[in-house]
Input
Amino acid sequence: MKNEFSYGTSSGKIASKSGTDIIVCPAFCDVHVHLREPGYSYKETIRSGSLAAAAGGYTCVCAMPNLNPVPDSVDNLEEELEIIRRDAVIDVRPYASITVGRKGLEPVDVAALKDRCVAFSDDGSGVQSPEVMRRAMEIIAENGCILAAHCEDNSLLRGGYVHDGAYAAAHGHRGICSESEWRQIERDLVIAGETGCAYHVCHISTRESVDLIRRAKDRGVDVTCETAPHYLALCEDDLQEDGRFKMNPPLRTSSDRAALIEGLKDGTIDMIATDHAPHSAEEKSRGLERSAMGVVGLETAFPVLYTALVRKGVISLEKLVDLMSLAPRRRFRLPVDSESGNDLVEIDLGREFTIEGERFLSLGHSTPFEGWKVYGKVLRTVYKGKQIYSL
Output
């Protein structure tokens, strides 16, 4: 294989090698990853996470703020940025938190932080107070930034850890109801409409969430949203008594999955993000009830979605590339230079392989897709004209 791409692709286009199943397309962008550094480098580092992203075809990822220290001030954010500048092999953009300490009590100094971060999020926690959320949206709107919300009403959780559905009932597990997600989205959409805030909803998982966002878009609210590969390829029917099936939000019902897919097709759901959330092997070895919430996804996203959606005729390859590459960049104003060959991923669509977590470059190996036979092997990734990953 040559060391340089001898062909490029114009923005948004897919090129193919004659006589093969190999394509070249704009490199992917993930606006929702957890790189765990600073503070939790035993789970992941910016180095390992960015290498994993490159192996998955990504040249840009946005790192969530549930870190130690929380990036809620210039000094704390600079600590993270120093590591990014030193260790990242791709474009890593940090989020700043919405509230000080991610405690949901007081908005951060948005004006001081906005030029150092991609957007503002308290991901891992929902902002419980409507008054605090309104004030945060007002400030973020005034500064022309984006608020990315983890929507979860703590009063409705009741100690749950899987979806409050048939599997939970049959196996004696405590459930997380769908309302804990959509009720806060419903609240926030009203506030976003009134404040004019650019509002992005993280990792939606329920049919009610899709419907609320669809209707908000129809009435002119500046809202976008994402879902994750595991919500599109799995549902509660696939659950096993294993920590690799535990994430937040949880896997919902088959009707929720169908609604998410319909939301992809009609444009309600704007993009796909992995919510890559690595933990140590020990933290994921405690079964559904006691394992940490979160699974990894950077190295499996494209093949899982290509196999589950494109090969089955659910969506087109062009649609999938837009959802994984161009749409997130459009919303979060992130650059891509695919036309000149500087940000590209080369993929063999015809190559079948088995997902094996132990082979991941990520420090986290827990995937609900362990053992799946999938198509669409990333052969190499180019960032700023340099090959940063090669199979």
The two ends are 10 Å apart (CA to CA). Confidence is low (pLDDT under 50) at residues 1-10. The longest strand covers residues 343-354.
